[in-house]
Amino acid sequence: MTDDATASDAASGGTESDVESNSTATDAASNGTETTDEPETVSLPRCPRCGTPIAQRTMIGPGEAVAGPCGCRVAPPDPNRSDSNSDAE
Q: Could you tell me where the Low complexity compositional bias lies (predicted)?
């Protein structure tokens, strides 16, 4: 270890072994089983015209929207209703 590194470690309150143990702990946490390669299952509302899942709605007028990605014209989303129960009705 050089004098510059020792001075910076002393100023920060850490040592080289502290840095190594912290990086090892970070590596162990990032390799844990918390994350999976499986994509999350997301329930999207279906287009009332063609049945394709609607990923977005684009407003084209005060009472009209275009569903994406299918492009069908649909009613705009109701701001008083959450997306989670839009399939229920």
A: 1-16
